[in-house]
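Researcher: Following up on the earlier apo prediction. This time include the ligand. It's zinc ion, with the SMILES given after the sequence.
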Amino acid sequence: MIFGVVAKLYQNTTDAISSNDIIAGNGKTATIVYFCHEEAQRGRRVITNFHTYFENSPFYKAAGFRMPEYMDAQEILDGFFDREDVCYGLSEVQKFMNSVGNPTAQKAWVEGLISQRRKLKVDILFDSQRIMSFDNRLREHTKYWYIPRKFHMDDGSFCQSEDCMRHHFIQVFQEVPFEILPIAMFDCEVIGKLYNTDEIIRDVISAPEKQKKKKKVPEYEEAPEPKRKKVNPEDLKGLTEKQKRRVLERMGEA
Ligand SMILES: [Zn+2]
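Model: Understood. Below is the ligand-bound prediction.
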């Protein structure tokens, strides 16, 4: 499965909380760490493109579990299709994709990933500030979209500040497919000890001259208007006038 952890899904959301929470440090990488930690506790092989310190886990001393492996993007890509049953935690999807190479190489990699994902039994958690940083094909195949939201531990109030020093907890909301209640919740101080919160992720192969030529990608894209099905007159046969009118109204043809 491919999981996307983002700050928000759309620009013009009517949701008062998510329209305000496009701030750095609202827990996207912490969310990845939280889920990787869960997988590591189950004994699964975990590979991340940032440094982790799971030896600080409250459970590690007592139970012991497989430590995650750090790899840079190039190491992850080399041999990617030979590794099986791995959970990847990859911060900053756009930098990772830059490391894959030019758009043609990216397309080939994503297609390989999509066709072999099940056989390889891999799970990948990607994060990015914006959903539009995800390559189109990758976005299409990302089945779960999570948005973390940060709250204060003492009074439960929502935190909208990037450099707030109060003690926080994070609730992870599954926006797609939509779940009304948070699917996970964790203490930022506990999870914060498990990785380097200041680490800067670098892409391995950067091509500045190509990036200049890159066509400008709109920052946001609204969800496309669902295609309306045309009313087939055959379907209206046998309906009363009232029923026909209702069907047409619902289909926007009345
Ligand atoms: Zn705060």
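Model: Residues 152, 159, 161, 164, 166, 168 surround zinc ion (CB under 6 Å).
Researcher: Noted. I'll compare it with the apo version next.
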